[in-house]
């Protein structure tokens, strides 16, 4: 294989039966390059196991994102009706650490940010969508339609194949009201 790759493309070195059914040539090329790194003659030139795991995770994640459906924003309040996923990323600077308000158990991080009208909101961002789908669905289903002066209202949510978000109105604390 190594001698073939000098004169041929990666896909030309792959078994034709496999390459004819392949739709993700970029991932095949990344895996092939990883295999070449792992077979370097000098062990010091080979990646460590943790490097390999990181590279494989990156390949899987990029494939999931590439093959995923676009995020679907559902607005339950007029404050959220004009926002897109890209707007949310912009408002939170790609969910930067400075916007972290807290953590929702083992399944999510809570962010505080301002809408374009300067109204503060909380965003509950669920980790690894496939593992915490039930947590997200339970929180969403319990919050939809729940109205009480002492409970924050769900004003929207976002569903995608790689991430789920819940948007809540901001309720000031007693400290906020006194200062």
TrEMBL record:
InterPro entries: Kinase-like_dom_sf. PANTHER family: CYSTEINE-RICH RECEPTOR-LIKE PROTEIN KINASE 10, PROMASTIGOTE SURFACE ANTIGEN PROTEIN PSA. This is Protein kinase domain-containing protein. It comes from Papaver nudicaule.
């Amino acid at each position: 294989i190594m001698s073939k790759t000098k004169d041929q493309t990666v896909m030309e070195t792959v078994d034709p039966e496999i390459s004819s059914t392949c739709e993700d040539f970029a991932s095949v090329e990344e895996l092939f390059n990883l295999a070449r790194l792992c077979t370097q003659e000098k062990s010091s030139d080979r990646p460590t196991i943790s490097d390999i795991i990181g590279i494989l995770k990156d390949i899987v994640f990029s494939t999931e994102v590439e093959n995923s459906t676009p995020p679907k924003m559902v607005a339950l309040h007029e404050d959220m009706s004009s926002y897109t996923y890209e707007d949310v990323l912009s408002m939170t600077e790609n969910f930067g650490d400075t916007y972290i308000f807290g953590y929702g158990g083992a399944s999510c991080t809570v962010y505080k940010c301002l809408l374009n009208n300067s109204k503060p909101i909380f965003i509950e961002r669920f980790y690894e969508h496939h593992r915490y789908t039930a947590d997200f669905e339970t929180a969403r289903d319990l919050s939809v339609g729940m109205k009480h002066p002492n409970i924050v209202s769900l004003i929207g949510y976002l569903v995608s194949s790689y991430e789920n978000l819940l948007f809540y109105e901001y309720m000031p604390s007693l400290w906020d009201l006194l200062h």
